[in-house]
Every structure is written in C-alpha cells, then in structure tokens.
Specification:
Layout (H helix, E strand, L loop, with lengths): L3 E7 L3 E7 L5 E8 L11 E2 L1 H18 L7 E8 L4 E5 L9 E2 L7 H9 L3 H8 L8 H11 L3 H6 L3 E5 H9 L6 E3 H4 L5 E2 L4 E2 L1 H6 L9 E3 L7 E2 L1 H4 L3 E8 H8 L8 E5 L3 E8 L10 E8 L2 E10 L3 H11 L7 H7 L8 E3 L17 E3 L7 H27 L5 E5 L6 H11 L2 E5 L4 H13 L6 H5 L4 E5 L5 H20 L2
Parallel strand pairs: 1-5, 5-14, 9-12, 15-21, 21-22
Antiparallel strand pairs: 1-2, 2-3, 4-7, 6-8, 10-11, 13-14, 15-16, 16-18, 17-18, 19-20, 22-23
Helix pairs in contact: 10-15, 11-13, 12-13, 13-14
Bound molecules: adenosine-5'-diphosphate.
Adenosine-5'-diphosphate binds next to α11 and α12.
Length: 495
C-alpha cells in the first residue's frame, strides 16, 4: 500500500500538518495559530509548550478529520521557523522560560559589542552570517547571562538547547534524540559552514556550554521515531530543514543558479549555489541549502523583514483593506502610484542594508494620492525589495537568472507577481501548490525512505500553476527603480 508522508510546518504564527501522497501532491492539511508574546517593544517570544501542544493537536485532528490511521503514514518531515531558540530541562522536558523568536531585537546591544570588537569578518568567514540579533547565538547568550545558575546547570548536562526542530524532535521522541540538521544549525551563528561542525571559537565567544547543543545530521536522514504514545504507532522522522531551505527544496531548485522567493510575512530569496560556498560582497548570507548523504549544497540568501506584513499593516493599522487578497483589485484599479513610494522599514532594513534603526516612510505624497495608490505602492515595495536582492545575487554569484519560482501567501497576488516579473525582466513560475515548505520536507523524507530515487525523480512532481512574463517598457522600469533607490536612501537618513 502507498502510504502518506506527514509533513510538519512549524511556522512563526501557526503550526501546520499536511499529508502528501506518493506523487508528492498535497492531500490534506490542518493549521492552528498560537500566541505571539510581546513583553516589551521589539521583543518577541513564543511559549515552547504551546508550540508543541498545538503541533500535536493539528496532527491528531488532521488524521481524525480524514479518518486516516497512523499506520498509513510512512514517514514524517519537519520544517520550522528558523533561528528561534528554546532551552529546556533534560530530565523533565520542560522549557525554561519562553522561546526567543527570530524577530526579537533584544540582543542588539550584544551585537553592537561584537561589531565594536571587530568580529564581523571572522564570524562571516566561519558562519556566512552578518552580526545581527536575528540569529540564535546572541539569543542563547542573552538567556544564559540573564538567568544566574543556568550556565552551570548546562555544564553539568542538566539542560538542553536548540532551534524549534530540536525542541519538537525531543518531544516527539520523548527525549530519545537531541538532534538538528545542517540547515537549522547554519542559522545559529555557532556552526562552521565550511567544516560542518559546531565551531569551538564561536562557542567560546558566545559562552555557550557545548553540552547543551544538539547533534547535527544531514537534512535527509534518520532523526528518531515519533513515540507510539502519541498516535499508537512508531513513525520515523526522515527529513528536517529550516523553512526557507525546505521551500527551496520543495520548489525543486536543485541546480546551481535556481532561485525562489517566498512572499510571506517577510520575504526570503534563496539561490542554490551547488557545492560551491559563494561569498557575497553585498552582505547577503551564505548558508547551507541542505545536506544529503555525505554532501552539502550551499545557498545565497537575502531576507526582507517586512513583506506581506506591510499588507497586514494596511489592513490592521490603517484599516484601508478588509483582507489581504483585496489589495490586488485595489492596486489594479489605479494605473500607477502617482509617483508614491512606500518603504516598509518597520523593523529596520535587512539585506543588503542591515540598518537596525531605519523606520518606514511614504514618499512623494501629492494632492491626488488616495488609499488605492498607497495599497499599490505597498505591494510594489515588496517587489522592489526583492528585485534589489536578486540583482545583487546575480552580481555575487556571476550567474544570470533565467527564471524565478515563487511561493508564500502573497505570491497569490497576481498584480504583485506581474510587477515583480516586470522589474526583474524575468519569467516567474508559481507552482500549483504554494505550500512549498511542507512539500520540501515531504520530498526530503520521501527520498530517505525510497519513495523517490533522486532529485531528478522529485522534479517531475513539481507542477507549475501559473507563469508571468515581463511586459513593462524599459524606460518605465528604469525610472521606477531610480525613484525607489532615492526613497530607500532617504529613509535611511531619517533618525
Ligand atoms: P507566514 O508563513 O510568514 O506566516 P504566509 O505565507 O502565510 O506567511 O503569508 C501571509 C502573508 O501574506 C501575510 O502577511 C499577508 O498579508 C500576505 N498575503 C496573503 N495573501 C495576500 C494577497 N493575496 N496579496 C497580498 N498579500 C497577501
């Protein structure tokens, strides 16, 4: 009998569970949001136990709703929000405090200090990352510094720490496995992406007891078994990856130069650079795309902190949209923005600017500008930011892009996709299933258990839903991009 693959997508705002069939097609899904905790401005936390309980709940309800027995599941794949860290007690499995989420800016002072000490180059050389509160290491350091006694307990082996994948696997295996995969490890700022191991110098620099860190495994491989206590059946966990790398895999971006952009809360552009570790001259990140067998492949990554979140802001804070999907019709109902630009730097600017202090702005407001122009300018800002990253990626990698694959909630917006194709002068392909994150780890775990023989075999399961081809006049394109450049620069000079 052909069994399903259970894919877990533990995201920033929700836990999802999906069932994929042997052809890699999505059959059923279930999701549930969990609480966002904002203890202070700029701080973001999650309750780790709530994450695990919500995750388990969606898995159980998915199976129950569709009357699918656990024995029909061949394997489990896990993708997760990256960089977020949890510390827990080994003996009880109880988390110590809340998880510090990737978006949390509380460790800006620790990062400033590292920069002042001139450590940027060393850290970039070892990890491919730029110093920023975004990554896990400063969060772990903050936690251990803040709570006296924890470091000693950690040294005595009483505590464990890890990213969300490790936390979930520890719970799922009831404490039998403390593991992570290469992609998640590569976002911690403690992992050496050349030597493929925890880096002793960095561990010392951040003062993290090594005993609390998980063992690192290839993304396709064995991570342990879901304990029979949960579904009455033991099920192997055979694919694990951070959400963006999982999406790159789900998009079948298997060749050097293949690129995907995920348009979610933020936007994440990743380019596969094969087994070559490409270094950026523009503060893009070098990261691990995945580890399979004895090999790893690398990726270049650029992240935009505010993408679809800017549309949420129009809806929730300005109240000029009922829902996100409506933005498409509003944008198309005007012929242009009347020269209006929106720079949604609500939480600073990510790559390539890495300006922790930039704030958002609207530029070029004239008497005739109305809310539809603001909506259109906001959608366009998502495409401008993505354009900037991709043109730098072309320069850094020396590879000319020939197609962009897109996914994430806001990729459903046809206006945005057309504008993106126009700005990039590039064909865009949107897959039939935009849930590429869960599909990616479904593919990974299916590969491990022999559902597919190799990546070429998987590629046949990638189905295109719609394509967008560029059609904007070159003169318009150049003018628009020049205006955007001026807007971003102005935004960074306002303090
Ligand atoms: P995440 O996984 O980061 O939570 P999703 O991939 O679910 O995000 O995408 C949700 C985001 O996409 C939200 O910020 C929402 O505003 C935006 N979004 C969803 N649908 C549309 C749409 N049709 N047009 C523009 N933005 C959209």
């Amino acid at each position: 009998m052909d069994k399903y693959i259970l894919s877990i997508d533990q995201g920033t705002t929700s836990c999802r569970a999906m069932l994929y069939d042997r052809n890699g097609q999505l059959c059923y899904s279930k999701s549930k949001e969990f609480k966002q905790i904002y203890p202070k401005p700029g701080w973001v936390e999650h309750d780790p136990m709530e994450i695990w309980e919500t995750q388990l709940y969606v898995i159980k309800s998915l199976l129950k709703e569709h009357d699918i027995p656990a024995k029909s599941i061949a394997t489990i794949g896990i993708s997760n929000q990256r960089e977020t860290v949890v510390i827990w007690e080994k003996a009880s499995g109880q988390a110590i405090g809340n998880a510090i989420v990737w978006q949390c800016r509380r460790t800006a002072p620790i990062c400033e200090d590292l920069k002042e000490r001139g450590l940027e180059k060393e850290i970039y050389d070892k990890t491919g990352l730029v110093i920023d509160p975004y990554f896990s290491a400063s969060k772990l350091k903050w936690f251990l510094d803040k709570h006296p006694g924890l470091r000693d307990r950690a040294k005595r082996g009483e505590l464990l720490a890890g990213t969300i994948d490790s936390w979930l696997i520890w719970q799922m295996t009831r404490g039998k496995a403390h593991v992570t995969d290469y992609t998640n490890a590569s976002r911690t700022m403690l992992f050496n992406i050349k030597d493929l191991c925890w880096d002793d110098d960095l561990i010392e620099l951040f003062d993290i007891p090594k005993a609390i860190l998980p063992e690192i495994r290839p993304s396709v491989g064995h991570f342990g078994y879901l304990d029979p206590m949960f579904l009455g059946q033991e099920i192997p966990i055979c694919g694990v990856a951070g959400d963006q790398q999982a999406a790159l895999f789900g998009q079948a971006c298997f060749n050097s130069g293949d690129v995907k952009n995920t348009y979610g809360t933020g936007c994440f552009v990743l380019m596969n650079t094969g087994n070559k570790l490409v270094r950026s001259n523009h503060k893009l990140l070098s990261t691990i795309a995945w580890g399979i067998g004895g090999e790893v492949e690398y990726a270049l990554e650029g992240s935009i902190f505010v993408g679809g979140a800017a549309i949420q802001w129009l809806r929730d804070e300005l109240g000029i949209l009922e829902n996100a999907a409506e933005s498409e019709r509003a944008a198309e109902s005007v012929s242009d923005t009347q020269g209006l630009y929106m720079v949604p730097a609500f939480t600073g600017l990510g790559a390539p600017h890495w300006d922790m202090y930039a704030k958002g702005a609207l530029f070029g407001i004239t008497r005739g500008v109305n809310f539809k122009h603001i909506i259109r300018a906001t959608l366009e800002s998502i495409a401008y930011q993505s354009h900037d990253l991709m043109s730098l990626m072309e320069q850094d990698s020396g590879i000319k892009l020939n197609v962009l694959k897109v996914d994430g909630g806001a990729s459903a917006n046809n206006f945005l996709m057309q504008f993106q194709a126009d700005l990039l002068k590039l064909n865009i392909k949107r897959p039939a299933n935009i849930e590429t994150t869960s599909q990616g780890v479904a593919f990974m775990s299916g590969l491990e258990i022999g559902y597919w023989q190799d990546k070429a075999d998987i590629e046949e399961n990638w189905l295109c839903g719609r394509s967008f081809t560029p059609k904007m006049e070159e003169k318009d394109r150049v003018e628009k991009l020049a205006g955007w450049d001026r807007a971003v620069k102005s935004c960074m000079t306002f303090r």
